[in-house]
Specification:
- By secondary structure, this protein is low in regular secondary structure.
- The chain is about 15% helix and about 0% strand.
- The protein has one helix at about 65-80.
- The relative contact order is 0.04.
């Protein structure tokens, strides 16, 4: 049984003319000015002061692929997964 070709339906929507923009109504009520509270004073003490000046962070060492693999295996072992030794992708070893 052959299917009839589907023709897209033409949709026509009635376009409404845009209404003229109405001017915004101004409110005449005046509000009392709001006083903002002053920020609290920052207390500094000798114990709270840092011992060294703040500067750029020390560069991190990039882990090796062996370290990343070990962390990966440790994580999944902690999640009670079974760790199996690696094997060749090609079972025949070709």
């Amino acid at each position: 049984m052959a299917k009839k070709p589907v023709t897209p339906k033409k949709t026509t929507k009635a376009v409404k003319p845009r209404a003229a923009a109405e001017p915004m109504k101004k409110t005449t009520s005046k509000k009392a000015p709001v006083k903002k509270a002053a920020p609290p004073a920052i207390k500094t003490s000798a114990a709270a002061a840092p011992s060294a000046p703040i500067g750029p962070a020390a560069p991190r060492r990039i882990p090796t692929s062996a370290e990343i693999r070990a962390q990966f295996l440790e994580f999944f072992e902690e999640q009670r997964h079974t760790i199996v030794p690696s094997d060749a992708v090609d079972p025949g070893g070709r």
